[in-house]
Amino acid sequence: MSSDNTPAPKNFIRQIIEEDLASGKHTSIHTRFPPEPNGYLHIGHAKSIVLNFGIGEDYNGSTNLRFDDTNPAKEEEAFVEAIKEDVRWLGYHWSDLRFASDYFEQLYDYAVELIEAGKAYVCDLSADEVREYRGTLTEAGRESPYRNRSVAENLDLFARMRGGEFEDGTRTLRAKIDMASPNMNMRDPTLYRIRHGLVHHQTGDAWCIYPMYDFTHPISDAIEGITHSLCTLEFEDHRPLYDWVLDNISIACHPRQIEFARLNLEYTVMSKRKLTQLVSEGHVNGWDDPRMPTIAGLRRRGYTPESIRQFCNVIGVTRSDSTVEMGVLENAIRSDLDVHAPRRMAVLRPLKVVITNYPEDQVESLQGPNHPKNEAMGTRELLLTREIYIDREDFREEANKKYKRLVLGKEVRLRNAYVIRADEVIRDEVGEIREIHCSYDPETLGRNPEGRKVRGVIHWVSAGKGIPAQIRLYDRLFRVPTPGKDGDFLSDLNPESLSVLTDCVVEPSLARVEAGARFQFEREGYFCRDIEDADDGRPVFNQVVSLRDSWGG
């Protein structure tokens, strides 16, 4: 069950559904999520998943997962499986798993019906000629010279198209509607095209003609008994064709198509074509690269299903296009992890500290809370040794009073441990700081020193007991809020979107955590154990999000 402990979101689609139920037009609600398996789902698809499956759950209805698999040239079984995994991961369960290809025979029969009714014809115009004949937004189109073929000839040609007699592009089946329609989609749209030499992931080589989306989709909805067919605004102009198809075939069910605004998110792209290009040209490391807006990428980055559902509910469902700030998505995961992520310590840029008055062979077991606001999460063991690492940014030889970390000659507290004082800087042969010699006050475990003011608290990891790790820091994938607005979107890629830190050290409790485990690295941000180790076997942690909103400027 995917529902969170929040009221069901109100929107115009839910209002329509409630009115339909109240009026008795429908006694049950049936929705569907119909992706094409030609790539991985992205955060925009998550909005549709949450909408369709959420409605199915909240109104005790049902929701199908249906693959719109009418273009085998771009579709793969691997994408089918990835999409199923994404839907399950988001917390939803489909009522039925369907494929548009399940209906190929029925779709063919309905096409024959249209031909027999004089409402479809086989056209010999090439694709370029069809575009030329279609006209423009200000000029009516011209009728195809093949538009008035007899029913008998059209039936014969369509059967021979199916039989594989004609080459690709030589013939199409078109609806006979209105070449002067102000809606370009109604100017005799193509219903079927010839595609030889393709192996469909469900039907193999059984077909060499494939139905178009605008013909397949309404019929698939009707066959499945969908009550409300929810799609994004770019399909609003297609709705008259959706209705025309169902009005002109012998099918009883007539779903209602309702359009809503798609999700646009700053500093990324939502076009599947562009996402495919990013992957195929190696600009990212696969569909699940944590910089990608794909659900797989967000999952690998460390986002939770709850945070994505919450994000979708926060942005809402409207009929007005808008662009969502990246900070809204980040705030959703930040709020979730602030409550649920255990705390750990990790040093990203290590600087060795030698506690000179600490016994050389001593290993002291200290306790650190797993969560400062939730005692029920318990504690974990922290191992203190004479040599530790602190972050290089947490030490300065000189600093003003605003700097609350370790300064030469001053004191600072080690998180969950003692107060230390920086006594001496040790440099290497080129003058770089190699290590800091400090002393500790053994009376300051769990208490403040008397008569002395400690500047602040810093995190640390034992040098001998810490675990070497690789940590990946992520920035926005693109340098500008709207990639490609002024030209090629690839030119807007951020060359610093990924920083790999190879010499990090994390506390021992992180040695064997499972892939996907999420933590707050104290004072650093939220991180997730990656699905793979570094080349040398070190665990890899991906930055999920910073501790604070970093998108304000």
Q: For the residues shown, what is the average pLDDT?
A: 96
Overall geometry comes to elongated
Rg computed from alpha carbons, rounded to a whole number of angstroms: 31 Å
Order the strands across the largest sheet as they lie in space.
12-27-28-29-25-26-13
Structural class: alpha/beta
Distance between the termini: 38 Å
The number of helical segments is: 12
Outline the structure in words.
This protein is of the alpha/beta class. 25% of the residues lie in helices and 24% in strands. It has twelve helices and 29 strands. A seven-stranded mixed β-sheet has the order 12-27-28-29-25-26-13. The protein has a seven-stranded mixed β-sheet with strand order 23-20-21-22-14-17-24, with no helix packed on it. The chain has a four-stranded antiparallel β-sheet with strand order 4-5-6-7. Helix 7 (213-224) packs across helix 8 (239-247) and helix 11 packs across helix 12. It starts with 11 loop residues before the first helix and ends in an 8-residue tail after the last strand.
